[in-house]
Amino acid sequence: MDKPAVERVDDIGASPGDINGSDSGHSKIARRLLLKQDLSIVLILSGCYFFAYLDRGALGNARIMEFQKDLHLDNSQFYNCLLMFFVGYMVAELPAALLLRILPSNLVYALSCLGFGLLAACTSKAGGYAGVMVIRFLLGIMEAAIQTGFVFISLWYQEKEMATRSAFFYISAPIAGAASGLISYGVQKNLNGANGLYSWQWLFIIEGVFSVAWGILTFIVMPRLPEVVARKGSWLFRDEASRELILRRTTQRNAPDAKPCLWQIGWALKDIKTWLGALIIGAASMNIAAFGVFLPTFLHEFGWSPLQTQLYSIIPYACAVVSLPVLTMSSGRVQQKAAFLFGCLSTCVVGYIILLCTTKRAACLFACCLVAIGSYPGVVLGASFLLLNQAGYTKRATAWAVTQIFIQCYSIIATQVYTSPPRYLKGHGVLVGLNFVAVVAIAIKSILMKRSNAQRDAADQRFQEEGTADPEMVKSLEELCDYHPSFRYVL
């Protein structure tokens, strides 16, 4: 039976300091709440993203296991199979984000995991080009919901908590890349021919089964939207003190029970910050999309054997596993996003320049590590830089969907420009250019937001001197979004 919604701080037997202690992190209630959130939201979403990334990237490892040869695919057909995943992803991204406001979030993420897990396993029985194309398209549709994890985290966590939680959510991607190399090495060495199946078939089956199992766990553990939990409670958040704190935290930068608003879509599309953010995250994500599929191919072209390739592919991901939490947590500690983001994408530019300029294996592997070191934290910082600076649920979801469209378009481009072995100069050249554009976009967006903050501070000062209040202050964030006079952009 649902518990009645909490109305006042006095009702829960906690002082205002306990409730507001969520800001300082010192109250016992706040610490206990954050731990529960981290375990039920960040950990579960990280697992979802881990398996999604594992399943989407399996095609690259399978190629080294002669997947392409066994299914009689030429290079053009293989690249088209890669492309179809991103087409499906692009089609489903905005509906998936809006679906979080319509269906229970645990159901959305659970169905996503179950869907892409089953589709990954079905790839083992794909009979040819047409079958793989259909499966990859459907796989993209089913995985689209997982990327909304950044939006979901932004609803549950406060500004200073976002970067760290987003980092732990996204760190599952490089971990999945490293794990994929290890799993592929073990499968190729020990299971090729077992029970009459090729090693690549075993790879898809194993990774798909684990994804399905995680989907079941997600349905059980994942909470719903924060305002729903605050109002009705859940098996993890039963006590009234936690529910009151959840409600207070979520109203600081979000409007509870916000519904999809068509006019906010228009505002998001007219906001230059939406497009600049898309250029920034699109470039970092394109790096990851290209390397997620082509890294084994790059390393194989450097001259290593198939088994050595699977092992060496772990190294760049291991570097990213270190750089992602270090840079994002440092960014959160000093409350700076733009400077760290600028450094991340500049590092990627340097990596691609090295790949364009040398053929030495050690230098090329080092360059791949530089790209990984900059790209993974770049996506997390870029996501925080975008989502923290968009208010209004539909406006934020639309900005994120536009970003996802850029990401998928960029990823489609990546599948078509890496077609000139052994050095793939065309692909590296395109990516160095797009990363440079992203660096410029960071600078422009920072200048615009800094100017807007200064204008709002000046307006506040003017109203104080006049002894009056800004008439727009009485409106909600859902009405004015990030144009609300109390809203300040995070630099």
From TrEMBL:
Its main location: membrane. GO terms for molecular function: transmembrane transporter activity. GO terms for cellular component: membrane. InterPro entries: MFS, MFS_trans_sf. It is a multi-pass membrane protein. The chain crosses the membrane at residues 33-54, 77-100, 107-127, 133-155, 167-187, 199-222, 275-299, 311-327, 339-356, 362-387, 399-418, 430-448. Residues 1-11 have a biased composition (Basic and acidic residues). It holds the Pfam family MFS_1. It is found in: Membrane. Gene3D superfamilies: MFS general substrate transporter like domains. Keywords: Membrane, Transmembrane, Transmembrane helix, Transport. Residues 1-20 are annotated as: Disordered. This is Major facilitator superfamily (MFS) profile domain-containing protein. The lineage of its organism: Eukaryota, Fungi, Dikarya, Ascomycota, Pezizomycotina.
